[in-house]
Amino acid sequence: MTYLQARSDEEKNRRKKAILSAAKDLFYERGYGVPVEEIAARAKLSKATLYLYFKNKDELYVAAIREGFLTLEERLQNAIQPDGSVEESLNALLHAFVDHMLDNRKFFRMTQHYLAEDFRERISSDPDQLLEQEINRLFPYVTQVIERGMDQGIFRKDLKAGDFRTIAWRMATGLLDLAVADESASIREGRWAELFRKAITIILEGARARRDKGGWSPEKGRPEVAGF
Amino acid sequence: MTYLQARSDEEKNRRKKAILSAAKDLFYERGYGVPVEEIAARAKLSKATLYLYFKNKDELYVAAIREGFLTLEERLQNAIQPDGSVEESLNALLHAFVDHMLDNRKFFRMTQHYLAEDFRERISSDPDQLLEQEINRLFPYVTQVIERGMDQGIFRKDLKAGDFRTIAWRMATGLLDLAVADESASIREGRWAELFRKAITIILEGARARRDKGGWSPEKGRPEVAGF
Amino acid sequence: MTYLQARSDEEKNRRKKAILSAAKDLFYERGYGVPVEEIAARAKLSKATLYLYFKNKDELYVAAIREGFLTLEERLQNAIQPDGSVEESLNALLHAFVDHMLDNRKFFRMTQHYLAEDFRERISSDPDQLLEQEINRLFPYVTQVIERGMDQGIFRKDLKAGDFRTIAWRMATGLLDLAVADESASIREGRWAELFRKAITIILEGARARRDKGGWSPEKGRPEVAGF
Amino acid sequence: MTYLQARSDEEKNRRKKAILSAAKDLFYERGYGVPVEEIAARAKLSKATLYLYFKNKDELYVAAIREGFLTLEERLQNAIQPDGSVEESLNALLHAFVDHMLDNRKFFRMTQHYLAEDFRERISSDPDQLLEQEINRLFPYVTQVIERGMDQGIFRKDLKAGDFRTIAWRMATGLLDLAVADESASIREGRWAELFRKAITIILEGARARRDKGGWSPEKGRPEVAGF
DNA sequence: CATGAATGAGACTTCATTCAT
DNA sequence: CATGAATGAAGTCTCATTCAT
Fold this sequence. Notes:
Chain A is mainly alpha-helical. The first copy, chain A, has helices at residues 9-30, 36-42, 47-53, 57-79, 86-103, 105-116, 119-122, 131-151, 161-181, 190-207. In chain A, helix 1 (9-30) packs across helix 6 (105-116), helix 5 (86-103) runs parallel beside helix 9 and helix 9 packs antiparallel against helix 10. The longest helix of chain A has 23 residues, at 57-79. The first copy, chain A, is elongated.
C-alpha cells in the first residue's frame, strides 16, 4: 500500500481540511447517520487515519457544523445595510438567516441536533471545539443593529439588546424547525414565507418603545403559575 | 420459565403501555442510546416480545415521545383559567408549557431530536404513529384563547389565530433549546426565567391591535433579500 | 376465536393425518427448513396445536418420511414380476426403487438426511417412530427374489440374501446421492441412467455363483490395511 | 483489549486456517448445531472477525468439510501400493476410505449432510467453495488403479474407469450411511467389516472381464420398468 | 504516520418450543 | 383441547473505535 504522509504541519492541515470537507458534503446531505468509513473514503484515506485528526465522530460532526457557520456569516455580512433604517436592517438580517437555513436544511437540522443531543459531553471540552464560540461570533451582526435602534429610541429601554437578539433568533429557529421538516414547503413563498414575515413584524412591533408600557413582571392575576 | 400473557386486546394494550412506560423511563433519562435489550428487561419481558409490540427502536422512541405529550396536555389543562383575561390565560398556558419542558428537559430534547432527525423516514407512515397528530391535539388549548382575544379586538385582525399560536409556540421552543442545554440553569428563576417573561411580553405586545398599523409586507427598502 | 375440537379418537386421527399431509407437501418440496408455523397454517391449525400431535419438529419430519415409504412400497409391489426370472425381477425392483427416488428427489434427500443427522437422538424412542421399522418392511420384496436366486443356484452360496440386499440397496442410494444432487440430470436417460444400469449389472455379475471362486477374506498381500 | 492481527496474506491465511480448525473440531464433534459464537471463541477471536473471514455459517461448514478431505487424501496416499496387484491396490484404497470414515464418523455424516441438503444454494457459487472440486481431486487415486486393471485386461473393456470408480465409491458411502449410524458398531470387525469385505469382492468380481459377457442393456423382459 | 484488521456493542430476525388462558 | 402469546437461542449485519504493524 502506498500513501501520502503528512510530514509538515501544512500538509497536516490540508488533510484535516480534506476530511472536514468530505464530512461536510456527506453530513449536509445525509445527516449524522453517515458512516465514518464513508467519510474517510471520500477524503481518500483510511478510517484509522481519520481518527488521527479527529478524536471521534462527534468531534468531526461538530467541526462540520462549525464550518457551516462560516458560510452563514458570509451571508449575514452581505445582508448588512449600512445606511438602511434599523428596522430594515434587522429585517434583512433575520431574513438572511432564515433564507440560508432554508437553503441548507440539513445543516440547520444539524445545528438543532447539536442542541438536542448532549454533544458537549462527548467531545473534548476544548472551547475551540464548541459551537457556542462560533455562534457567539455571529451575535454582533444583530446586536449592533439593535443597539442602534436603542440609541434611536426605537426599542423599549428596558429591553437589553442581547436579550432581544436571542428572542428574535430563537423564534426564527423555532419556526425553522417546522419549516425545514416540511419537505414539500417551497422555500421563498407560500405559507412559511408569510409566517416568517408575520413573526418578524410581531417581534419588531412588540419591542417598539411605547409611552404607556410597563415592565415584564407577570401580571398580578397569575399566582398559580409559579413565576419565572 | 414462566411469564405473563396478554390475551385480550385490553391486556395487550396494557402490555404495550408497560413497554412504553419502561421506554419512557429510560429514554427520558439517558436518551436514544438506551439498548432495546435494557428496555425489554425493565418491562420484564424478552427482546423478542418487545419486537412483537413495536416494529423497531425508532417506533418505540417516537411512541415514548407521544406519551410525553399526554402528560404535557394535563399540564396545559390545569393551566386553563376560564375567567382570566385573555392575556393572563395566554401567559399562563405558555408558562405551563415552558415549565413542563424545563421540568422534563430530556423529554424536550427528544421532541427536538425528532424534528432534527428524519424519524418519519424510519417509522411506519401510520399517522397514528406520527407525532404531528399528538401535537395538533394541543393546539386548541392555545388557539381558543387567542380567538377569544380576536373577538375582543385585542389582537390585530389580520393575524390568524393559528399563525399567532405557531409563532408563540415556536419562539418558546427556540428559547427552550438553549435553556435546556444550559445544565446549570435553575428552572424557575434567573436569566432564563426573565428571558421567557420578556419574550412572552414582546409577542403579546407585537400582536396587539393598533390603529396605526399596516400589513406584513416587507418594507420597500429590502429588495436584495429575496422576498418572503 | 372459533375452532374445531378433536373429541373423538377418530377426529384426532384425522387431525394427525392432516398435519402429516401438510408436512409432507411442504417438506417434500422445500426440505427440513420449512417452518413449523407454515405446516400448521397449511393444516389450518395453530402451531401450538400441532405440538399436541407431534412431540417436535423432528418427529413430524420423520413421520413424513415414513409416509413416503408407503408410497415407495406401492411402487415396489407394482414392480414385482411373479413369473420373471430372478435377474429380471431383481433388476425391476432396483429400477423401481431408483425411479421412485428420482421422481421424488426431495424425499430421497430426506431419507439420507435422516441417516446423516442424529435424528434418533431427538425423537421419542418409540420404535413405531423409527424409520428402521418402515425400511425393514421393504426388505422382503428384494430378499425373497434373492432367496429364489439362491435356491436356483444362481448366486454364490456363501452370500447371505440379507447382505446382498443391503449391498445392492446401498449402492443404489450411494449413486442416488449424486444423481439427485445433479439438478440438471434428466431422470430416465443419459449418464445417470446408464450408470445405474452398469452398477446393477456389476452387482448381479459379482454375486453370481462361480466354480472357481473362494471366500471374502482379504487377499494375503494387504497386511497394512487392518482387516475388516 | 489486545489481539492478534493478520496483516500479510500469509498471516490471513493462517487465521482462516485457525478458524477452520476450531470449526472442524466443533463441527466434527457436535455437528452443524454448534453456535458460530462458540467457534469464534475457540479460535480466540470475536464473532465479528469470524464473519470477516467467512460469509456465513454455511460457508464455514462447507469449508470444514473440505478440510476433512485433505486428511482423507493423506490416508489414501498412504494406502497406495505401487507394487501390489490391481486388486490388492483397489482393495486397499477402498478400505482406507471406509476406515477413515469409520474413524471420523461425524465427518462422514457431514459429507452426506452436504449432499442431502441444498448447501450449494446457500453458499457463494465460487467453485473454490464447492466440495465437488475437493472430491474430484481424490478421484485419480482410484481411477489410476482401475486404469491399470483395464490395461491388464482384468476388467471389462466396456466399463469406463470413471464409472467403475463412481460405482465402487458410492457403494461404499451407501454402506457407510448405515454403518456410521450404528453407534454400537465396532469399526474393524464384526458384521460391518464383513459386509464391506463382501461388497468389495462383489464389485471386483462383477467388473472382471469375462469371455461370455454382453452389454449393460436391460434384459428383454423388463418393458414395464421404463428404461434408463 | 498510515492503515488493515479486530472488536464489542447492539439492532433486528427467525424459529422451535413452551406457557397461560 | 386449542391457541395466541412469549421466549431463548442464535444468525447476521452495521458501525464507531482501537490496536498492531
